[in-house]
Every structure is written in C-alpha cells, then in structure tokens.
Amino acid sequence: LRQRLAVASAVAGVATAGWLYLRHQKEQQQRARRLRRLRELSLGQGDFELRDTSGTPRRKKDFLGRWVLLYFGFTHCPDVCPEELEKLSRAVELLERDPALPPLQPLFVTVDPERDDAAALARYLRDFHPRLLGLTGTAEQVREAAAKFRVYVSAGPRDADGDYVVDHSVLTFLLGPDGVFRDCYGRSSTAEEVARSVRAHMDTDQALPP
Questions:
Q1: 184 labelled as ligand-binding?
Q2: What is the Cα–Cα distance from 66 to 119, expressed in whole angstroms?
Q3: Which homologous superfamily is 49-204 in?
Q4: How many degrees, rounded to 5, is the angle at CA 49 between CA 44 and CA 104?
Q5: Is 77 annotated as a binding residue?
Q6: pTM of the predicted model over 0.85
Q7: Strand order across the 104-110 sheet
Q8: Does 168 show up as a binding residue in the annotation?
C-alpha cells in the first residue's frame, strides 16, 4: 500500500510539474504576442524635444531606465485634466509604497503651449504629485510629441475674453524603461487599477524586440 501511495504521489508530482511548465510556456507565448502587438502599434516611438518648468531641455531618451506615466492635457482644463492628474498622482503614491519596485517618473505634457509656459505649468502642478514633471515647448514641438502618441488635439473657438478650451484625447500612457509604449489607461480606470496594472508590467517586464 505504501509503495502504491508513493508511486501515486510521484505521478501526481510529475503531472503537477508538467502542468506548471505548460502554464508557464503559455504565459510566455501570450506575453510574446502582446509585445509584438505593442510594437506594431508604433505608439510613442521616436524621440521628442520639449523643456521642463526650469527651462531645461528634455527628450524622451532622458527618461530611459525608468518607467514613465505620461499624460497630455492643459492647465485651463476645467475638470477632466485635474481629475486625471489626481488619479495619476494617487497611482504613483500607491506604487511608491513598495521601495523594491523600479523607479517611476510621472510626466505631464501640455497641449496648449500658447498659455502653458514654464511658469504656468509650475504653478499648476504644485497641486499634484511633487515629482510630476511638466513639459512644454513650441507649438510645433508639442504637436510633434502628441502626434507620436496619436493624441487628438483641437483648440475650440475663443470667447469674448479670448479664452478657449482644447479638446484632446484623455489617456495616460505607460512607457517601459526602454522608452517603448506598454499600456494606456482611460477615464474609466481608477488609481488602484492603474497602480495594479503598472506593477504587473514591472513584475513581468520583458524588453520589446527590435
């Protein structure tokens, strides 16, 4: 009886090991397919040239080696942008609770460079995460940066005071340490969901193939 039990236990152990191996292989294959699809999207590829609130030139390659959460918006946005930046800030705070996680840089790129100069960005971003870095530039530089992420931007008509609203895509982009797009989050995503997703990407990170 003991011998039969030992044999049955051994068989069960082999079967479990085989199942775990097959599951691991399937997960690797799924991850590889996802990475290939991300590469095919071509979002965020290439560099951009902007400047931060201190006037320092910034390029996308400056953030290589760090994960990046990137949001395009504008400081005169009445409600959507503040809500999204609050959510982004909260997600970063949740991730910062684990010091073992790799570095993460939150970025805000204005889509309204006419009004959002360095000083305006600095004032606006004081209400959000202290490491949230604001980027602006010339109209052409901002337009080129937004185009690389296929962000829709359209300034509305001006009112009697010369004020206007900028319609734009509402998405937060996740870039990997290699600077390549990994995921994006819309308005329906909560800060907790964003944090969980970013953490999952960090835990299973695999560089995209060239």
A1: no
A2: 26
A3: Glutaredoxin (3.40.30.10)
A4: 60
A5: yes
A6: no
A7: 57-59, 49-52, 133-136, 104-110, 67-73, 172-175, 181-185
A8: yes
If you search the block for the tokens 């009004």, which residue do you land on? 115
Q: Which one, of 111, 105, 160, lies nearest residue 139 by Cα?
A: 111
Provide the residue-wise pLDDT of the chain in tens; the chain has 210 residues.
666 665 656 666 666 656 665 654 665 555 555 555 555 555 556 789 999 999 999 999 999 999 999 999 999 999 999 999 999 999 999 999 999 999 999 999 999 999 999 999 999 999 999 999 999 999 999 999 999 999 999 999 999 988 999 999 999 999 999 998 999 999 999 999 999 999 999 998 865 555
Q: Which residue type sits at 37? A: R
Q: What is the pLDDT at residue 208?
A: 52
